[in-house]
């Protein structure tokens, strides 16, 4: 299949990790930052035993979000930013197609599970930041949440 995408691989990794890290797999407190086409029900970050979520360098951090669609959504992209000293710094993802992380198209009223992960690169500076995670569809915001994180060794 042409569908050898990262997100699905991540799901397998996450499932493996989940068995090891069940104790940490609790929903995190997030802030909504303008979800419009959908309503976020929960956000899980693994590992994130407490806030700010420790983003350990050279590891994958998994993000699972459940939301209810308030509109039909045919296509969507993932945009991740770090809010560092008041500046929104783009956090490039290898695959920004959010439809590789959830089933598309989405019908209004559907509850959707979105699963993705990010690799925390060794060269990222060790600092505390606010992560802004946004799903967009054209110029519309599907979902947007922020949570505090801290890049660690
Ligand atoms: C992170 O995920 C990628 C893609 O699935 C994988 O190739 C890599 O080995 C993972 N790295 C770690 C440290 O788990």
Automatic annotation (TrEMBL):
Residues 30-149 form the MD-2-related lipid-recognition domain. One of its GO terms (cellular component) is extracellular region. Gene3D superfamilies: 2.60.40.770. One of its GO terms (molecular function) is sterol binding. Residues 1-25 form the signal peptide. Belongs to the NPC2 family. It comes from the Eukaryota. GO terms for biological process: intracellular cholesterol transport. It comes from Elysia marginata. Pfam families: E1_DerP2_DerF2. It is found in: Secreted. SMART domains: ML (SM00737). This is Epididymal secretory protein E1. Keywords: Disulfide bond, Secreted, Signal.
